Amino acid sequence: MGAGMFKPLKIRAYRSLFGAQVFSDLGNWFDFVALQVIVAYHWGLDETAVASVIIALGLPWVIIGPFASVFVDRLPKKTVMIVCLILRIIFVGGLFFAPNLYYLLLFVFLKGTAAALYDPARQSTIRMTVPDEQLPEAVTLSQLSVNTMKILGPALGGGIIAFFGVKSPFLFEAAGFLIAIIFLMMMPKLDETAYVEEIKTTKEIPQKSSYWKDLFDGLKHIAKTPLLKISIILSSVAFFIIFLYDGLFVFLAQDLGFTKENFGLLISSVGLGSVVGSLLLGQWTNWKHKPIHLMSTTALLSGTLIIAVGLGSMGILNLPQLVWVIGAFLLGLLGSGEAVPYGYVLQSETPKQMMGRVSAAATSMQTFSMLIAPAIGALLAKLTSVSVVMIGAGTATCLLGIFVLVFILRKLKALQTNKETAPVQKSTG
């Protein structure tokens, strides 16, 4: 199974594409810590400013992402990706020299736009370089890169700030995009004629309507698949809660006595915990029989940790910094107990031919949750305090876990009674 997943890497064109994706994904997340540190520590701005940065990061994926494929489909994919990477290097330069928050937000949005245009071109190229029978493996590898870099990017960014200074991650990020361009340059020429002919045969059907049709097909499949539906709702709500306090994390760190150098250590610990959690779940796979049980149990445990952090920033829990670093590690460890089972359910409960549609529908729900949460978090922090928001988020996470566990146990009881009465139903049906 493990070796099978890496089969597409034997294809030269896909190998170049995957190499470029790893460095491109890393770039997407590399400056995540740097932006927050610049806004909170370097410029001394408040929660609203950090929330606005997180919103500017996510907005292009919602506004531009779904419609980008309309233009991308008519252009050579390799060229689109290289141009987008060159633009991202320019916009990262803009972030490096940004004198204030307004310039910073503009370049964050522009960089996100280039990334949202790059992604549909990459998705199309996967289709063009990989035979249909290896598509699931290629999509899984692609997802693996996205998830790993989501963990490694912020962790590395935090470490680089500690060693080289507050704006240094931008230079490393630009270098990463340059390496991605080199990978794409090495990609053999793609035969796009057959692909274009295939699109032409759809005649006057606009790509936009086909996107919406695909999206609604995905939604229909989610609605009638209970396990998938529960896991997407659980994951979207969990994302909402995480992003509710995510932009405030830097202020909590200040309350707990962390400096701008130590803040990177805290984020790195969350990242390390996520990697360890993923590796453990890869080794111990019995959870596959009860993935939702694992998701809701980890929600309950991480909720308790989040409450503890809130109490710590209030000064009620006075613990040494090492304990908070271990707590951050455990938070990451438990986070993978939500993310890995979600990925498994998404793969196992979705037919191969619907994978793109269902994951697009699921991602749009999650992105919406992630986008509205920072603004609500910042508003609540203004009305109350950062500590109160953290305690509230932790309590909500615990309640979410308890609710889903109770819901599952009731469902299982109902299924058990259905099984017992099944022969009777058969005879009447």
UniProtKB/TrEMBL annotation:
It comes from the Bacteria. The keyword Lyase does not apply. One of its GO terms (molecular function) is transmembrane transporter activity. It is found in: Cell membrane. One of its GO terms (cellular component) is plasma membrane. The chain crosses the membrane at residues 21-43, 49-72, 79-96, 170-187, 230-251, 263-282, 294-316, 322-346, 358-380, 386-409. Keywords: Cell membrane, Membrane, Transmembrane, Transmembrane helix, Transport. Pfam families: MFS_1. It is a multi-pass membrane protein. The keyword Cytoplasm does not apply. Residues 1-413 form the Major facilitator superfamily (MFS) profile domain. Its main location: membrane. This is MFS transporter. It comes from Cytobacillus dafuensis.
